[in-house]
TrEMBL record:
<protein>
    <submittedName>
        <fullName>Glycolate oxidase subunit GlcE</fullName>
        <ecNumber>1.1.99.14</ecNumber>
    </submittedName>
</protein>
<dbReference type="GO" id="GO:0019154">
    <property type="term" value="F:glycolate dehydrogenase activity"/>
</dbReference>
<keyword id="KW-0285">Flavoprotein</keyword>
<keyword id="KW-0274">FAD</keyword>
<keyword id="KW-0560">Oxidoreductase</keyword>
<dbReference type="Pfam" id="PF01565">
    <property type="entry name" value="FAD_binding_4"/>
</dbReference>
<dbReference type="InterPro" id="IPR016164">
    <property type="entry name" value="FAD-linked_Oxase-like_C"/>
</dbReference>
<dbReference type="InterPro" id="IPR036318">
    <property type="entry name" value="FAD-bd_PCMH-like_sf"/>
</dbReference>
<feature type="domain" description="FAD-binding PCMH-type">
    <location>
        <begin position="1"/>
        <end position="179"/>
    </location>
</feature>
<dbReference type="InterPro" id="IPR016169">
    <property type="entry name" value="FAD-bd_PCMH_sub2"/>
</dbReference>
<dbReference type="InterPro" id="IPR006094">
    <property type="entry name" value="Oxid_FAD_bind_N"/>
</dbReference>
<dbReference type="InterPro" id="IPR016166">
    <property type="entry name" value="FAD-bd_PCMH"/>
</dbReference>
Amino acid sequence: MTDPAINAADRDISERLCDQVRNAYETRTPLRIAGGNTRAFYGRPVEGQPLHMAEHSGIVSYDPVELVVTVRAGTRLSVLQAALAEHHQMLPFEPPSFGENSTIGGAVATGLSGPRRPWAGAARDFVLGTRIITQEGKLLRFGGEVMKNVAGYDLSRLMTGAQGTLGVLADISFKVLPVPTASHCLRLSLSLEEALHKLAELGREPLPITAAAWHAGELFIRLEGGESSVKATRERLGGEPLEASFWASLRDHTHDFFKYRDDPPLWRLSLPPNTDPLALDIPQQDIFYDWGGSQRWVKTTLDAATLREVCQAAGGHATCYTPQARGGAAEPFTPLNSVVEKYHRRLKAELDTHAIFNPGRLYAAL
């Protein structure tokens, strides 16, 4: 049964949330920040008193002319996207939803971006400002609603991808963009070697490519932009038409590649552009190349140390998307080196002195 709180259309409960955070700070009570719980698999499990965000929902302001929207963190991602679509606009970083209860706060807290990421930018690139509930239960504003207002902007960027370990996102302001006037998706039958060579070649030209992936002998490409540019590139590349819904299935992990619970653990390998296939003993059918090859979804029983060693040698890192309870790695994220960990600890101690915000979500010591 769906939690009725998540259906709240327009409600500001920031005062109640501040009271709960203030009490947790005074009593040293850990909090588990929860929105739609569609991303609970991402990161380490958290033990704590739930801080329910879904009821804190609604679009605070939206100026289609200025391409700026401010929204409460508990707002469903689908609600925000529908409001933007009415004005033919979108969130450029194409956030994954992983379910109908997905909230915009969860999308920003995890910092995940969809297939458009290499061509449009990451989630943090479009966060203009935030209102954050601090450890003392204060509601403070950081950043603004225009790109030139940079006061406090860095903290808003820090919150993006911090998984709620530094504070509670209450409201978020975004830069949005118009939906492209023309779009065409296609598929080409190519080997992996041919596909990677093709993508490297196309990447040197100003073509309207906004997504590229490869799996099981097929290269998938999305073209978006002006009518003439899309048409000319489509005619040049040829191939067979591809349903636009393919990219949503890849983004939200509803594609057949991700569906089977009995599969080996799922890993995301993040690598520099134009990285060759890695020297890993993994069948090609168990690898899905996304972001033009920079992001690779891998299903494997290889141990975490082996995967991470190979990725790091190539200049990347590996993240486990399967919870430990289902056979995934005990540490989902690549361990920090001593210098980086020192700075993470200092930041955590400054913004969350008593470790009440999602303790252990990213790393056991944080």
